[in-house]
Amino acid sequence: MSTVVITASIIMAVIVVAAALFTGRGRASGGHGLKRRFGPEYARVVARHEGNTKEAERELDERVQRHGSLREQPLPPGAREQYVVLWARIQDRFVDSPWEATAAADVVMARLAKERGFPGGEEFEEQLAALSVHHAGQVHGYRRVHMAVRGRAGTEEMREAVVEARDLFDELLTQRPDNSSPRRPQSSEDRSHMPRAPGRRHTKG
Questions:
Q1: Membrane-spanning residues where (predicted)?
Q2: CA–CA separation, 50 and 188 (whole Å)
């Protein structure tokens, strides 16, 4: 009987060690996959966790589990054109009222994301987490806009935030059949109509 118990204990020990090794390999593979999926967002989360990659990867993995199956909803007919007009007004308004324009951009982004099927803007962190799973390369601009409004940032900082947020805005306006092929972010020429901070002069030619 004691021999059976010893043999069973050895087998269990081997199973535990094998499981640990397998889990370790899974973590390493998962970490690499998370880096590839989240890109710069991965580095931001690691920095927020003070370099603790284990905690950062746990957070990112939880985001994928919660929002990975989300499917973006198509916009109602005519909605895309309405959003384009709203964003043009934001850009025009920025010259005279930078903070108000940035706050409007924050509201429009939240509404557009909700209309595409993401959590509502009243749950900003959850909405941002869901967006980061599907639009990791563009989500930071929206975050910058939101933080600029809450922190009363300087005019140039707000302008840069609105310019960067345009990438996610355009992504959400793009009606794709799935989320597998994110559109290329806009070049600086595509967004050249965004006004500079008041008081700055530019050399013509």
A1: 6-24
A2: 32
